Amino acid sequence: MKNGMIKIRNARMKYPGGDGLDHVNLEVAGGEFVYLVGSTGAGKSTVLKLIYMEELPDAGYVVVDGANSSEISRREIPFVRRKLGIIFQDFRLFEDRNIFENVAFVLRVTGARPRDIKKKTLRALAEVGLSHKSRKMASDLSGGEQQRAAIARAIVNDPLILLADEPTANLDPKTSVEILNILDRANARGTAVLMATHNYELVNYSSKRVVSIKNGRTLP
Ligand SMILES: Nc1ncnc2c1ncn2[C@@H]1O[C@H](COP(=O)(O)OP(=O)(O)OP(=O)(O)O)[C@@H](O)[C@H]1O
Ligand SMILES: [Mg+2]
């Protein structure tokens, strides 16, 4: 098992206006599954932004599979992101493309062979139970279906690390369990998973490691 897949040390990141992160420490080892739990506004999505390097820390540093935020150049950031699967809180699907194309997109931009693109995309859609909706436009799906499409896109390339931002928000309990099972299966295939959630109940009943965040600070 590779250690230190994600390492955040004494990170601070302030938005204009003064909100953001004060002091964050977080470590995720290769193949690990960790929950990042905190109430609304605590800073969970911002921590994920530091990991996919949409924001860089003002102090401290972030290391993702060996790439250090304090040394990285803007040009190198897309290569770090290719190792990640990201389920955004707001899905970020292309509304004007069908579900197959939304999921296949990552593979197309990395120049995968058409045969592999088809195979992997169909497999990911089957994994989330959306095979029958592959030709539908993203805007014509229900919220829960869009959430599952976003998950299929995030896992299609068997990423080293999966970042999941509230992937069960707005879903009924049964669908939430299905989503957690999908994340578990990705984890069993070797993907490290960091899942942000404000669902304390879910976390309390889980045997997985939990990191808590409050007012921009991870708790020791
Ligand atoms: N783009 C932004 N510009 C300015 N302030 C922001 C921005 N994004 C987030 N914030 C502020 O930073 C703090 C942390 O926000 P963040 O989105 O990380 O919280 P969160 O834990 O993900 O919350 P939620 O559970 O509601 O998604 C909040 O006070 C929020 O208002
Ligand atoms: Mg959030």
Show the helix and strand layout.
Elements: E1 6-14, E2 20-28, E3 33-37, H1 44-51, E4 59-64, E5 67-68, H2 77-81, E6 84-87, H3 99-109, H4 114-127, H5 143-155, E7 161-165, H6 173-188, E8 192-197, H7 200-204, E9 209-214, E10 217-218
Parallel strand pairs: 3-8, 3-9, 6-7, 7-8
Antiparallel strand pairs: 1-2, 1-4, 4-5, 9-10
Hetero groups: adenosine-5'-triphosphate, magnesium ion
Write down the secondary-structure element order: EEEHEEHEHHHEHEHEE
Helix content: 25-40%
The percent range for strand residues is 15-25%
Silhouette: globular
Largest sheet, strands/sense/barrel: 6 strands, mixed
Q: Output the number of helix runs.
A: 7
Mean pLDDT: 94
Gyration radius, to the nearest Å?
17 Å
Distance between the termini: 24 Å
Structural class: alpha/beta
What is the number of strand segments?
10
Within the largest sheet, what's the order of strands? Answer: 6-7-8-3-9-10
Low-confidence stretches: none
Folded structure, characterized:
The protein has seven helices and ten strands. The strands form two sheets. The protein has a six-stranded mixed beta sheet with strand order 6-7-8-3-9-10, with helices on both faces. Helix 3 (99-109) crosses helix 4, helix 3 (99-109) runs parallel beside helix 5 (143-155) and helix 4 (114-127) crosses helix 5. With 220 residues, it is α/β, with parallel strands linked by helices. The radius of gyration is 17 Å and the shape is globular. It has helices spanning 44-51, 77-81, 99-109, 114-127, 143-155, 173-188, 200-204; strands at 6-14, 20-28, 33-37, 59-64, 67-68, 84-87, 161-165, 192-197, 209-214, 217-218. A hairpin with a 2-residue loop joins strand 9 and strand 10 (217-218). The structure holds adenosine-5'-triphosphate and magnesium ion (MG). Magnesium ion binds next to helix 1.
